[in-house]
Amino acid sequence: MSPEMSEKGLFQRTLLANRKYMKLVSDVMYFLGKWLVILLMLNIATLVLVQVFCRYVIEYSLFWAEDITKWSLVWAGYFGAACALRTNEHVSLSLFVDWLGDRARIWVLFAGKLLILFFLVCFVVLGVQQAISNPGFSWAVNVRVMWAMFGMPIAGAFLLSHLLYLMLEDLVSVFCEEAA
Predict the structure, then answer these.
(1) Range of the domain at 140
(2) 10-39 pLDDT, tens digit each
(3) Stated pTM of the model
(4) Cα–Cα 20 to 30 A to 62, which of 72, 88, 102, 154?
(5) Residue 113's closest CA among 88, 81, 78, 96?
(6) Rounded distance, CA 42 to CA 46, Å?
(7) Cβ contacts of residue 103 below 8 Å, gap of 6+?
């Protein structure tokens, strides 16, 4: 066995092992994200219905419902984006990419995923900075706004886990044809 073959085999085994680990992480994040979106949407629907009932039937408005609903909607949007990324359900314009051959298509899509990776790293880092530096306070909920803003970097971590898994899948499909 030549050294190049053993290096190639080691590279393939490493890719496959990392794919298995990242699939597990991504699956757990997808499961948690999906249920979080469901619970957040139920929370929004419940709070809006209760608020409408209180405002028009009891004639007393819940002063805290608007903040909780707004933050739940933002968090649901972020985590919904993570679930959509994991299942490849984001809107995409693939007209020109579809004209490419299989290998070229994989590399063009991989380059796009590298750009998304750069964006997500910035998203997480700037999200943490923004949340920490926010001095706002919600008097209605009696909580610092910082805690609501942590939805951005937390969802960014979910997005990163899914993106890394999808990128490993692409690499495995290119370098490990017999195993894919």
Answers:
(1) 3-175
(2) 888 888 888 889 999 999 999 999 999 999
(3) 0.86
(4) 154
(5) 88
(6) 6
(7) 174
